[in-house]
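haha ok so turns out i had the wrong file open the whole time. this is the CORRECT one, sorry everyone. sequence first:
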Amino acid sequence: MTNIFDELKERKLIKQVVFEDDLRDMLSKEKVSFYVGFDPTADSLHVGHFATLLLASRLQKAGHKPYILVGGGTGMIGDPSGRSDMRPMMTKEQVQHNVECIKKQCEKFVSFEGENGAVLVNNADWLANLNYIDFIREVGVNLSVNKMLSYECFKQRYERGLSFLEFNYMPMQAYDFYHLFKTYGVKLEVGGDDQWANMLEGADLIRRKLQKPAFAMTFPLLTKADGSKMGKSAGGAIWLDASKTSPIDMYQFFRNIDDSLVEQELRMFTYLPLEQIIELTQYKDERINKAKEILAYEIVKIVHGEQIANETMQKVKASFAGDENNMPTIEVNAGDIGTVLDLIVKYGEAKSNGEARRLVDGRAIKINDRVVDQYFDNLPEKADGSFVFHKGKKLHIKVIVKWI
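then structure:
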């Protein structure tokens, strides 16, 4: 059996581990059932979840069996980890809708066929029917409040106000691991490093109640260049659903990442051999752009398929070459574009009017061949029914105007 633990270590995809030597030995000698979990906080997973799915895929390719847990139960509570405020409460109908959407997405990344085919489970199936008194007698007696409050995920919220609702999240996730261990023989939980405390409690609960070993393993969180977490709650999410983030937007996002992130994301988000990644990222000049193009292409290929990836790359190259017939195209209502600032904020990846103004000041915005130098330019070109919007040297979009 492939020694996947050493491979993950070499790719720098392991952050923290419970009983590292024992886990490494177990993964090298036997087929291990493991689980990853996703709470249905939206109707699509995002690129932060993509990292988890790829880690599950790597473990499965090495012979291990994944259980994909969709948190129909825990999603009713909301994980306080990494949050400065309480998550919005969702209705049962919203949660169930999101569960179904996420199930379909997971099927694209792990195989559900064969001896080690993935199994989808929903923790609402066991959490929703729990009697609360029985639950706290069975689980609560094994969890230390002092220990729970010492974790960073609770420390941050404790000072600002941690609801009793959210305080129940950790015991519930711990119970998930306990239930999967008893029911399916799941010995390992895998997830992002922000889940470390929840995972520790689950492994510890199994050891306390069943006197059997259980393991947890986290990978480094995906971060932006400023060190902030990349995900839905942090803003600027890159969704796996093409209707929420188009393949072109996904490609351009990763094509334009900071140079310092390229190697980490190639290691995390592609199946390219490590030797090739090291070769691609050895340069500190404009040659690093080739690595970014490969990163963007590989991610779109995994998420949306090879055909879409090829079409996306062709369109992006066409936009650089000025080929209007093949560049990315959007259709907009003329009434939605009052001035050039509206265009820059809505379609030019500017986060605010202030950022849009700075782009105009820097002469980075062109409409067709005209450099825009007025903040409130009312875009006379839109009267022709279409124009090409340029932001710097990297973003070129054909805009088709509809008069509704």
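The radius of gyration is 24 Å.
again sry for the mixup
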